[in-house]
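Give me structure tokens for this 73-residue protein.
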Amino acid sequence: MRRARVARRPHPDDARARLVVLTGRGRECARAAEEAAAEAVRAWGELLGEREVRALGRHLLRIAPNGPVRPSW
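Here you go.
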């Protein structure tokens, strides 16, 4: 049986709209993804050093000035 990672909820201000929200399982998955990303960046730090990882972050912000795409929850 698959456990849902999102659920639809009524919008509090617009009866025509539905909100899509994370379930507990969805939050677990998001946390696991964030932990995996942090682990990858730690590995980069071991390879490149903290100074170069910070420089990489600055370069990425130049490429994508609005920052990472973040969930809205």
